[in-house]
Amino acid sequence: xxxxxLSYKEKKVITIGIVSEITGLSQRQIRYYEExxxxxxxxxxxxxxxxxxSDIEILGDIADKIEEGVQTFEIRxxxxxxxxxxxxREDVNKMIRGxxxxxxxxxx
Length: 108
Description:
This protein has 108 residues and is mainly alpha-helical. It is built from four helices and three strands; from the N terminus they run βααββαα.
């Protein structure tokens, strides 16, 4: 988001119990995926896990891949690869915007 605010999909406000109900995964499965660094909930001061709608989508993708026989380390490897690709595209876009701004003498 350009104004620094998270979209509703990124806000971590959903408890593990609700996530379990929505996804059909057990709370133990969800915690396991966290242990395997596939999902990253926030924690309240009391340690309660909080998830976002995006996290729920990721958990659904993880569950589908596990059902297909994909191992968690393979899922993690794929997630890292995708994150690097996304960052690279963002870096290229920033560079291009900078070059265009310099060429057309646009000041922010």
